[in-house]
Specification:
Blueprint: E1 2-7, H1 11-22, E2 27-30, E3 41-42, E4 51-52, H2 53-66, E5 70-72, E6 78-82, E7 85-90, E8 93-102, H3 109-114, E9 118-119, E10 122-123, E11 136-138, H4 150-169
Helix pairs in contact: 1-2, 1-4
Amino acid sequence: MTDVIVVGGGPAGLSAALFTEKNGLDTVVYDTDETWMHKAHLFNYLGIDSMDGSEYIAAAREQVEGFGVDIHEQEVTGVEQRGDGFAVTTADGETEAGYLVLATGADRSLAEALGCAFDGDLVEVTLSMETSVDDAYATGAMVRDQEWQAIIAAGDGGAAALDILSKEEGEHFHDFDVPADAE
């Protein structure tokens, strides 16, 4: 059993995975590498003057894997609550975790299968991106009507991760590094 399963490897999923793994939670990402970022070019992402979306995803994956996240290029075919967590099904079997982050773009089918509440076509979430299913989070285009920007999605993933980390710590968690941390 792992601590966190992230379904989706775009900006939201990789951001969530980075924060959780960096701060001690074993994190697995399942992704089909079909993110919209492969069709994008970034001019409007803070800190990036100009970068091809595929180049961005490659750099983000490298960073996330550098922290120890296990990324599987596999489609998730099912998800369910099980005990105190979740089971995710792929062609290779099942993986269980205490937390689940859905970062599948506009594809809301896993949120629907899990029984998350919807407001029209959108998955309902708190400000921390938690769905109506405790410890399950939804991010990006599945929770936003036409506000589909990579930097917004990355923020959604970060918000979900910080909420998970806060639950684990039993108090508000802040991932704030200082220059001495880089030494």
